[in-house]
Amino acid sequence: MLKKIVKSYDYTLIIAIILLCAFGLVMIYSASMAYAVQRYQVKPDFFYQRQKIFLLFFAVIFLITALVPYKIMNFTKWFQAPMVIASIVSLLGLFVFGQVKNNAQSWYQIGSFLLQPSEFVKLGVIIYLASVYAKKQPYINQFNKGVLPPLVYLFIVCAMIAAQPDFGTAVIIAAIACTIIIASGMNLKTISKLALMVLIVALPLILVSWGKLFSPEQMSRFEVMGNPFDEKYVKDAGFHLANSFIAIGSGGVNGLGLGKSIQKLGYLPESHTDFIMAIIAEELGIWGVGFVILLLSYIVLRGIHIGMKCKDPFGSLLAFGISSMIGIQSFINLAGVSGVIPLTGVPLPFISYGGSSLLMLAGATGILVNVSMFVKYESKYKNKQGQTDKKLKTEDGKVYYL
Questions:
Q1: Residue ranges of domains in the chain
Q2: pLDDT of res. 401
């Protein structure tokens, strides 16, 4: 049996994750050398060495979540209730003990490291919504009973994150939730009713609190999108984006060569975090950018495929939620760096420097690999042995397997 389980793991997915992490480590070293010396007066490999530590923890968390059956997370009493409480308490604690970075009080200082709880809340929301909506399959279209209750937790979490203020992360979590809701099996009538209700509630709140919802710095990001080189913005609000454009344009097709970026030498702030793709474009050209986008796309599309193949509603929604999280976060980072949308400070998955994001991705992708393993194992071995899955019929006549 163990041999069959080992054979059932999706090794192409694992290899894609490893390649992205390794490539990210190389680019962090290249992008952060000058920044480490100029800004922090530390050794050139400071961020590289710290990222290696994060990757060691990544490997441990990934192995645990990839090996331990994902279905144990579907037990509300001992897993989900503490997870929900811990996420709310950790977000509330930021308003008292949180450290301010980039104008947002989103971090806990633990020794020399910073921990961002909202990153882990992303995964918590995916697990919670996947579990709840999987259990509600028989009455998923009963609005008051099947749709609304889980959204109370989602609203509380998004409101607390937006109040830090970290509007970008709040939007990402809301977008992930939308993906899970759409994939949960609700019919179009129920989804339309939910969308209308959100619009009626959210639109007045946004209009009333527009001035407080975005800080002046965040508002300036909308203004500079069209032309960051304008004299009014280029030395202030448009500085990051203008230098990102210069880095991308300088790279051209083939790039200047690994380690030969000019913009990382004090011109482009956060070159190893939010703007690491600009450095990749400058040093490795379209080939480096294409390599990253290809691997990220593979992980996202593979996750969607796993969700479609999985017969277990909980596993299916987990796969959809995790793949959408990686896809949404990648799009927001790439679109921000290229000026398609306002900058949000969202890291590029697997590539950008940062422990909180990387450790969360370790748990998320480990779960995705675990779901994939069960899908392949059950389809290839379990069903061949004549074992049948328990069927669950919904009110619409749809059949799910447990």
A1: 2-401
A2: 46
